[in-house]
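Notes to self after the call with IL:
- keep both proteins in one doc
- input above output, always
- annotate only the second one for now

Protein 1:
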Amino acid sequence: MDLPSRTERARHAAYLVLAALLCLSPRCHAQASPRASLVVTRGDGAQDCPDGAQLAGQVRAIAGRDVLSVGLAAPTETWVQVTMTRGFTGYSAQISALGPHRGTRSLDDLGPSCASLADAVAVTIAIFLTLEASRRQFSAPALYKSARR
């Protein structure tokens, strides 16, 4: 096994320093305000399902940051409405998102409590919102416009 040359070690050290500087920058640690509002309604029999604050906490734990505000008080670009119900066959949730990226998802769970459905809803919302943020962060509309000219 060959040891890395002095030049390779210096290059690796430079990459490590650059990575450390990038992660120490204010932008890396800046907590952007949530870009989505969450409204949760629970039907009869679904009171064991999480309310808006509890579901937002689950999404925060999965996403690793605040991506939702609860209620409609703060203006946001995306609105997420979750309706949880309980029927004869178990629990169900309807997730609707409105804004620049919209869509709906329906989830059902046959379990005796709402816990599994709540976890699935939180994961679904976290994936949707973090993918939306990633698309926004890495898209370069100006670059596309200049390339088309």
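Protein 2 (the one to annotate):
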Amino acid sequence: MTDLEKRITALEDKFEIEQALNRYVTGLDTRNVDLYLSAFDENAHLDMQSWGESTGIEAIKAGVYGTWEGFESTNHVAGNFTLLSYDGQEAKCRSIVISFAWMADKSPLLSYAAYNDTLRKKEDGTWVICDRIFDTRFTGSPDSLWGLKKEE
């Protein structure tokens, strides 16, 4: 592989790694379980701190269904994607995520967190999360900050 081919492959991989994050947040917000699960390796480990910990795709699936029961809606914005290490088959990255949600009881919830991910490249070129550690920076009600109230 030429140097140019290696650089193009690395750029394509970085894009695909970011797409794993996008599949996760989009699947979570749209409640599309297949899209959500497509972000994970079959044996993935997901440590969501106070939200719970899961290992394996079936446990992650059960966890997201439990999470959805507590929320009316969620809206995640992911950014500040930083690729920390990459060798063509495994990558470590960090992303900052802000989430605004309406709880099932109609109360608002604001969260700010970092996702610390280890991903691997599958044979088909798709990147999937093998390990995610959710580093919560803030979780609380934004109504004291902005006076938000959900209209009935």
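Annotation: The domain at 3-146 is CATH 3.10.450.50 (Nuclear Transport Factor 2; Chain: A,). The CA atoms of residues 45 and 55 lie 4 Å apart.
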